[in-house]
Design goal:
By secondary structure, the protein is mainly alpha-helical. Helix content is 56%, strand content 5%. The strands form 3 sheets. The chain has a two-stranded antiparallel sheet. A two-stranded parallel ribbon has the order 3-4. Helix 3 packs antiparallel against helix 4 (63-81), helix 3 (41-57) crosses helix 6 (119-156) and helix 6 (119-156) runs antiparallel to helix 7. The radius of gyration is 29 Å and the shape is elongated.
Length: 416
């Protein structure tokens, strides 16, 4: 429905009691949730199929209604995948959208589906199912980067590259060592992701609004149907812990973003004329509207910037959860935007940086020239003298005097 019609923009909510509802209030409370909930459609239907099967096993749904609900939900999923419907601005949330369309499709039987559950345990379940899928997607993206990094290592493994501290030439290194360090960071992120699975081992369904459901439900069977180890035994915990699993996941995403930002910063720096160590892939650069000679590294600059945005999103999610009393609160609705946005951005950046690494070329001549800097050999020369029996500090002072003509550096005491 449009805002200009004589009807309110929103569909009658599932909690409607026939009383007047302030439209401005509904617009504000729905906000962008309808758009966020589009990502939850398949998981809400998956959870609803399992819930309906559990109701039927407990004789809370007769076989005819169960089969009708099952057929209707499967049809809704097919139609959604075909792009025939989605959550609309006038839908309060994905649960309302699915239930409304199910009733339109199969009639009165669809109104029996909500028996024994609340939207509170529904959305908690939907989000855990989403997190499981999101983790798999992020894992795949990290593996793409690792494959690209390993291929880059094979191509340029032994090529010299100055090692830097404080962004000043420090000791000899290689392109192979440089990319290996980045790969190790992504391997750590994979381990962090693997450690997330305990967050979705127990199913919230059957905990209701946060205090259980006074019906004999097959919670174990429903949990197993959805791939959980079992139901959450403490019925108040799914709402008490809302956002904790999401925050834990987003902390891992933040780590991935930090990896991407550091890699992007290196690629950006090494591609400047002042360094000249690598050639930007032409197909992954942009141009200037004024300066015809420019090839701009917009991709890696925006990866760097979006990595910071993901860090900000994690802080936003943490702030939403701070200092809330126990139980469900509508504040939890705002968990979704930073969570979904950060995940989508990270997956997109992983795919793009992998393609960038596949195409990047290092410049051997520039690397060889930079690596001939005599300062890079100073530490090895010092250690050889110490190994030959000279006192380390005496050799250190003698070696440092060779570079006294170098411009002084403002270094904090104790820095290396």
């Amino acid at each position: 429905m449009t805002a200009s019609s004589n009807q309110p923009f929103f569909h009658p909510p599932i909690w409607d009691r026939g009383e007047a509802i302030d439209e401005a209030m509904m617009r504000f409370t729905i906000g962008e949730d309808w758009r966020m909930d589009r990502q939850l459609v398949p998981f809400d239907i998956e959870g609803s199929l399992a819930h309906a099967a559990g109701l039927a096993r407990c004789s809370l749904l007769n076989q005819e209604d169960y089969e009708s609900i099952q057929t209707g939900l499967n049809q809704l999923l097919v139609d959604w995948q075909a792009g025939k419907w989605t959550v609309e601005p006038g839908d309060e949330d994905v649960h309302s959208a699915v239930e409304r369309r199910l009733i339109d499709l199969i009639g009165k039987a669809g109104s029996r589906l909500h028996t024994g559950r609340s939207r509170n345990d529904q959305v908690a379940t939907d989000l855990l199912l989403w997190l499981r899928a999101a983790t798999q997607e992020l894992t795949q993206g990290i593996r793409q980067v690792l494959v690209a990094g390993q291929q880059l290592h094979r191509r340029f493994e032994a090529w010299p590259l100055p090692g830097y501290t404080h962004l000043r030439r420090a000791m000899p290194s290689t392109v192979g060592d440089w990319i290996s360090a980045h790969c190790r960071a992504f391997e750590d992120s994979l381990l962090d992701l693997n450690g997330q699975s305990h967050r979705w081992r127990l199913c919230p369904l059957g905990s209701g609004a946060g205090y259980g459901v006074p019906l004999e439900l097959d919670r174990q069977g429903v949990a197993e149907d959805l791939g959980f180890q079992g139901p959450e035994p403490v019925v108040s915990y799914p709402q008490h812990s809302r956002g904790r699993a999401e925050l834990s996941f987003l902390t891992v995403v933040e780590g991935v973003a930090l990896n991407l930002g550091k890699l992007a910063a290196d690629l950006w720096l090494f591609s400047t004329e002042e360094f000249g160590f690598l050639e930007l892939p032409v197909s992954m650069t942009t141009g200037s509207s004024l300066m015809p000679h420019k090839r701009n590294p917009d991709l890696i600059e925006l990866i760097r910037a979006n990595s910071r945005q993901i860090c900000a999103d994690r802080e936003a999610l943490k702030s939403i959860l701070s200092d809330l009393p126990s139980g469900y609160h509508r504040d939890f609705q705002l968990i979704k935007p930073p969570l979904f946005r950060s995940h989508s951005t990270a997956v997109n950046m992983l795919e793009l940086i992998a393609r960038f690494l596949d195409k990047v070329e290092f410049r051997k001549k520039a690397l060889d020239l930079a690596s001939k800097d005599v300062k890079l050999a100073a530490t090895e020369k010092l250690l050889q003298q110490a190994a030959a029996g000279q006192a380390f500090r005496e050799a250190y002072r003698r070696e440092s005097r060779e570079f006294e003509s170098e411009p002084p550096h403002n270094q904090e005491e104790g820095s290396d």
